[in-house]
Amino acid sequence: MTTRRRTPTVRTLGVGVSVLALAAVAGCSSGPDDPSPASSSAAPTASTSSSPTDSASASSSPSESSSPSASASLPAGFSLDEQSTADWPALGGRVGIGIESRVGGHGSYDRVVYQFARDGAPSYRVHYVDEPIQDGSGERKDVAGDVWLEVLVSTVDMPGESAPTADDPLPETLEGTGIAAAPAIWGGFEGVGQSFIGLTGGQRPFKVSVLSNPTRLVVDVAR
What we know:
The protein has 223 residues and is mainly β. The chain is built from 3 helices and 9 strands. The chain has helices at residues 19-24, 68-72, 171-174; strands at residues 83-84, 98-106, 109-116, 124-129, 147-153, 179-181, 193-199, 206-211, 216-222. The chain has a 5-stranded antiparallel sheet with strand order 1-4-5-7-6, with no helix packed on it. A 4-stranded antiparallel sheet has the order 2-3-9-8, with no helix packed on it.
């Protein structure tokens, strides 16, 4: 029987003083979930995210971009286009099971961070989808939001019977952000973990990156 665990650690949300200050930080200005663009993953379009957690998927309507003024204040690398690792969909359970996801606001963007149990670089794919449809069942998942980013990670382990379920973001961390929901990735269907980031309003540019010690997939979404 699985038991749900709530990590007792108090989560802190870093607030960027300015975009230039964020670019100068080496990944720890407000903690390990605040990487600079230099710490993004190997994919050319990948980068950091705006909440204390990670993710991945493809854009269904590139015309729905953010306003020029909002885009101008963002670090380089934000896009409406799909972002993925070059080895997608690599398999092998290199990151273990999902532990939790976290959300936080960072000035011009919001951040979602997905944390995993083991070391390793996750293979991911992040893009916009029309609806949050669950792999395997084909059923629509109940994920709050007006538009959705699908986050897929193919290097997760399958949870054992005694594995605690992953923790979703604390409700209070969603307040004041453009993130309506970002359920944690725990296991997956046929080795691929899936989550959806529900956004309020229309599609906005996003950026994906990977952090280590512990392993995290980070998705930043412009406000």
